[in-house]
């Protein structure tokens, strides 16, 4: 799987070059040593996608681990396996790669050891640093990571800025890399000058600051989120960094099918067959549109009475779970300022957890608990285990957690959510939740790095600008960028299904039909039907039928058509079902798309229940215009579907 060339310098292998090829032979990642400095470059179909890029780690008060290296040994490994997801965009994921580990030693007096492990898949490359425990070094403080990704200055990137008060919740910018002025978050998706799509991200982020990227003038360089002491990570050895990943695809739809991030994570070490993806409604949007409040008072949302009414609505609408926000003590006054005193086992006045939970149980509706920590992590961690026990006592198995606030407050220090200390908190909450049988929907989270393969109780995350930013801060193109950027890192709680699109306080830049399409285009293991029940029951019961029918867990996903920021159309088959669902969204431009059905069973007829924009629909002045119609389709058929400006569509394909 490679070629090997080494040059001896004083008896040591300070110059070397070794290429690792993808199973299909199209991607070659070459690791090199040049006078003791290490690096790599990547070609796809003979074209250089990533130029020579240097590697290394800088350590506090020590010489950097980036030069004076000689190669002592290599180890080759390959895999070709298929594994089954508990929850996901498909049931089976293929994991095939060629791997080479490069064991290195310093040729100076310190003789420190390090390994670079490189894996090459058909859909990209990944590598990580592994530092063994060794004489004279059993811990290290990383002051900088020196990894480069030398994409070309003219490659175009969709990016959101890092180190900002609203974490990942920004609109995407689109510029050539040479114009990147900010540190940016990953996944960073680029359209390369070689005509490929490449996205830089990381996998298996544990016990380390999260990776942001910075353009140096010649390359993207890692910028690990710092701790408040200015360093990047304090670790004990042995230690391995998260995987540095470059997904590479020939087009953007192909990119959306990359599953490398999950393949680079370990299988679960415990049984997660209790994990059940779910749809849910919430005592929630009523607060956003100002009908109700989180805090107790005349318009308090989370009252026992409202909760019971919403539970009844869940039963009537066939939605299996209900989120209740504002149920606990801590929302009075400016909740964003007072989070230090939030209590996760004390109900707000007017809310009776015992009565509500037993009513829910009686009606067969699952409750989704809510812990808004406002980022006061010390306060939360003091209560965490007891709060989970409290949930368990009331039979509450789902939890939406939240970390609103520009930074976390931990032991009197203000830390970035995405720093090592933040990463470790999210992990602690996840592992403890698994112990208590709790499934999570994390808002203001750490970005997804595929760890839900190991911890499938993380059903979804927010971690991007979602629909709560409607009413001024969202553009129709946003939902057509996410599938190619944010969604490469895993499911998102985008909160689709708002039917009250014309609401005065929160006017959507969306048509009604598009709200249905989002249930398919934005994957989430917990999918919210976000509006108030009366809009489903009384305003648009016909359109609601799609929300009732659409699954949250999938057997297969087939990308149909798309262009970043313009349009995205995807087909998915329900897990363990014959039904297929197609969702589409467009940007500000209306368009007609041509669908094909080659994924359907041969010889079978399917009833297509189509929910689309009417010909005169428009997100600005006629967002409610929609048509629901039925057609019969077969595998060999074609179907044109119209999407209005800011519109979209949803189709259920039922085997006749
Ligand atoms: C921000 C979250 O994204 C939102 O869903 C939640 O309702 C508020 N914080 C309050 O916790």
Describe the structure in your own words.
The protein is built from 12 helices and 38 strands. The model has no long low-confidence stretch (mean pLDDT 97). The longest helix has 17 residues, at 377-393. Strands 7, 8, 9, 10, 13, 14, 15, 16, 20 and 21 form a 10-stranded antiparallel beta sheet that branches. Helix 7 (377-393) runs parallel beside helix 8 and helix 11 (533-539) crosses helix 12. It is α+β, with helices and mostly antiparallel strands. The site of 1-deoxynojirimycin has 7 residues, from loops.
Structural class: alpha+beta
Calculate the mean pLDDT score and round it.
Answer: 97
Low-confidence stretches: none
The biggest sheet amounts to: 10 strands, antiparallel
Bound molecules: 1-deoxynojirimycin
DSSP helical segment count: 12
Total strand count, please? 38
What is the CA-atom radius of gyration, in angstroms? 25 Å
Percent of residues in beta strands?
35-45%
Large-scale geometry: globular
Helix content: 10-25%
Q: How far from one another are the termini?
A: 49 Å
Please give a handful of descriptors for the protein shown:
single chain, 656 residues, alpha+beta, ten-stranded antiparallel β-sheet, seven-stranded parallel β-sheet, 12 helices, 38 strands, 16% helix, binds 1-deoxynojirimycin
Please provide a brief summary of the model.
The protein has 656 residues and is an alpha+beta fold. 16% of the residues lie in helices and 37% in strands. Strands 7, 8, 9, 10, 13, 14, 15, 16, 20 and 21 form a ten-stranded antiparallel sheet that branches.
